[in-house]
Amino acid sequence: MSIVGLLTFANFNDVKAQDVAAAEATEQVTATDEAAATVAEAEEAPVEETVAENDDTKSFHQMLKEKYIQGGAGWMTPVLLCLIFGMALIIERILYLNMATTNVKNLLDGIEENAKKGDWKGARELCANTRGPVASIFVQGLDRIDQGLDNVEKAVTSYGGVQMARLENNLTWIALFIALAPSFGFLGTVVGMVQAFDDIETAGDISPTVVAGGMKVALLTTIFGLITAIILQIFYNYILTKIESLVDQMEDGSISFMDILVKYHK
Which residue from 216, 238, 246, 259 puts its CA 20 to 30 A from 223's CA? Predict the structure, then answer.
């Protein structure tokens, strides 16, 4: 009996030990699965957030490209060309006008210094080495210094008109692009509206989806046309202001120039 009891107790301990080991193994497997799931969620969460962020935030270039395609290349391309050619002419005018700016006071002081000494040749060389329309006008006047002050004044007045025309060069084309950009936009809108009504007629029903889609595409051309015109108009007015400033310099400088000649020319 004792032996049988010992064997039974030993078997019972072995079974209990196996059950405990199995339970621990099950807990370890469960813990491992939970840890793996947590890691997977942690890895998937940034990806989902990144995808969501990429969907919500688009670069300005991507948005413009998307709207350009939606508006239709047939009508958006002329508007884009108006912007490109208009800005090219504007940049050319701004560079030209900035290079034409002259410190008239210093130039007149230099001419007067040479005039006091009777060195009209030196005064002409000073004007010839100075850039800008004002200096060019003075050169024309000094070339005729020996012909009398009346001829000098006529030369200054005539060449002043020539220089003013050069300052206003290409402004007509810029004004044309300012007018064409919204015109192309409006024309694209009208054509888009006609297409939208054609879609409604084909569908046989005034569906909000059909109407809204067609209206959106039609109005995009007007939006881009107006934006182009506004941009060009701002720079156009800046150029006009710059030209007015240079013309004032030319007129005031010419008067002061003639005063110097009257004072020192004999």
Answer: 238
